[in-house]
From TrEMBL:
Residues 1-28 form the signal peptide. It comes from the Bacteria. InterPro entries: DUF2147. The keyword Thylakoid does not apply. Keywords: Signal. The lineage of its organism: Bacteria, Pseudomonadati, Pseudomonadota, Alphaproteobacteria, Hyphomicrobiales. The keyword Signal applies. Residues 38-154 form the DUF2147 domain. This is DUF2147 domain-containing protein.
């Protein structure tokens, strides 16, 4: 019986991993909405965001993005792919890329947000979950199954 339960659990974890779902969602740790506030960076160092309280919601501005800087690694690109022609000449430096994340106490995560990709000019739905001290930021289209999760750690 124990073997069959372990097999079912392993199958569920593997299925979640293959569908792109964050495996750790069952182990979410957030208990307070302000736990998201701070500076977070991707594990590969290619993205650094500052999450902040934006009043009724939470948002994030970019501090660094490998795809958002010129070849010199320092100068931020212009937002040339923005669907709003009035924003195409702005620098992506400190641009707010994540907006409208709302704390959902029942699920222990932030939901209903938007993620703007300065690299593509596209906006996706977003949600964020704290798992084992790391922030899983999921950007998706329509359903959470159709998306990508970025794992971020608190910056030192």
């Amino acid at each position: 019986m124990v073997k069959s339960l372990m097999g079912l659990l392993l199958a569920a974890v593997l299925s979640a991993g293959m569908t792109g779902l964050p495996v750790g969602e069952a182990f979410a740790q957030a208990s307070s909405p302000d736990q998201i506030v701070g500076v977070w960076e991707s594990e590969d160092g290619n993205l650094k965001l500052e999450m902040f309280d934006a009043g009724e919601t939470y948002a994030a501005r970019v501090l660094y993005g490998k795809l958002l800087v010129e070849a010199d690694g320092k100068t931020f690109k212009k937002d040339t792919l923005n669907p709003d022609p009035n924003l195409r000449s702005r620098s992506l430096e400190r641009a707010v890329l994540v907006t409208n994340l709302k704390w959902d106490a029942a699920d222990g995560r932030w939901e209903g947000g938007n993620f703007y990709s300065g690299a593509t000019g596209q906006t996706h739905s977003a949600r964020a979950t704290l798992v084992s001290g790391k922030l899983e930021l999921r950007a998706y289209r329509g359903t959470t199954l159709l998306g990508r999760t970025m794992v971020l750690r608190r910056a030192q």
